[in-house]
Design goal:
With 258 residues, this protein is mostly helical. Helices cover 62% and strands 0% of the residues.
């Protein structure tokens, strides 16, 4: 809702996360899965295919592919990866309880071996975003306080950004976000996707009284929401976007930033 393995390395934030994160992952997840999971090449090819289907928004096909992998008695690392992706696909359908259950199962596998530490961090970021989107903001905030120990690097910097924005939006206050949001906006605008991040940033800018920047972000966001399924992964955010775009008549407006 969450920030992939195999073919996802080339796509960058191509998430997931569901949301927010799940479809938008990068080299960190590639390393977590490919570098730490050693199973025969046929399953590796099948996993890459399943992830590619999920990343392209083909939810039903991806779910079927992961279901087949799950029946083959996967080891802990592969099972954790499968649980994460099945959870992400459930989130994309708005099945918050099922997604939470799968993320928790993936974490349970990860906690049992230090070899899956990177995967563990990725799942935890997705879980926090899911909890916030489902209204469990207090629990999301408690877990978020532990995520500062996550590794550095582009993936986790973006994961922190998306997570903090998601929690702030669902708590209804931009307090605690950086005073200067323009660096975040600049980075988000350079991406081909990350549309949900642009919507969250637009909300944050409205909270800071910068409607001009918010208008620009809401104008470009829809084209970058491919495979995000925002109305299912975060219905409240989707409604806010549509209402604000309608109120500002953005579709018929000339954008001063063009």
């Amino acid at each position: 809702l969450w920030l992939g393995a195999a073919t996802m390395g080339a796509l960058g934030w191509g998430s997931v996360a569901a949301l927010g994160g799940a479809a938008f992952l990068g080299p960190a997840f590639l390393a977590a899965c490919m570098g730490l999971v050693a199973w025969e090449s046929r399953r590796l090819r099948e996993l890459k295919r399943a992830i590619a289907l999920a990343a392209s928004g083909r939810r039903d096909e991806a779910a079927a592919a992961f279901a087949v992998l799950e029946t083959r008695r996967p080891g802990p690392a592969l099972k954790a990866t499968i649980d994460y992706w099945i959870g992400s696909l459930a989130w994309q359908r708005g099945q918050f309880a099922e997604a939470e259950k799968r993320f928790e199962a993936a974490l349970g596998m990860c906690y049992r071996t230090r070899r899956l530490e990177v995967l563990c961090w990725i799942v935890e970021f997705s879980l926090v975003q899911l909890l916030a989107a489902s209204g469990q903001t207090d629990r999301a905030q408690r877990i978020r306080s532990e995520l500062d120990r996550a590794p550095d690097g582009d993936y986790f910097r973006l994961a922190r950004m998306l997570t903090d924005l998601t929690i702030a939006f669902h708590r209804g206050t931009a307090e605690g976000l950086p005073d200067d949001l323009y660096e975040w906006a600049h980075e988000a605008l350079e991406m081909n996707r990350f549309g949900n991040g642009l919507v969250l940033l637009a909300w944050a800018f409205t909270q800071r009284g910068d409607d001009e920047m918010a208008r620009h972000l809401l104008r470009v966001a829809p084209d970058r929401l491919e495979a995000c399924f925002l109305s299912e992964t975060d219905p409240t955010l989707a409604r806010w976007m549509e209402e604000k775009r309608a109120a500002w008549a953005i579709d018929g407006d000339d954008d001063l930033w063009d």
